[in-house]
Amino acid sequence: MWYGVFLWAAVSSLVFHLPAALLSLATLHQHKMARFMPIGIVLMGIMGPVCGGVLTSAAIAGVYKAAGKTMISLEALVFGVGQSFFVLIISFLRILATL
Questions:
Q1: Which pTM does this prediction carry?
Q2: Which residue in 4, 11, 22, 44 has its CB near the most CB atoms, within 10 A?
Q3: Under DSSP, is residue 65 helix (H, G, I), strand (E, B) or coil?
Q4: Is 13 exposed, middle or buried (0-12, 13-18, 19+ CB in 10 A)?
Q5: What are the domain boundaries of the chain?
């Protein structure tokens, strides 16, 4: 169960981060130091689900296992994309708080 949720969280995180990396690559390619920013963006798109996504996916799967329920693939999709969406919302709110 946890692997399905984790896999969807990783894929949706990359779907969110790859356009941002491509946009930064297109706009910052002539800058001396900032041209390497897309590497950091893609690494965060990978490392976020690996570090935090594994724990939250295991917690969701543990609740399902304790309740004695089975998880269909659509539920794993909703939980995985939901994790990435909440990370996106929290990231935007933290940026706005610093302004």
A1: 0.82
A2: 4
A3: helix
A4: buried
A5: 2-98
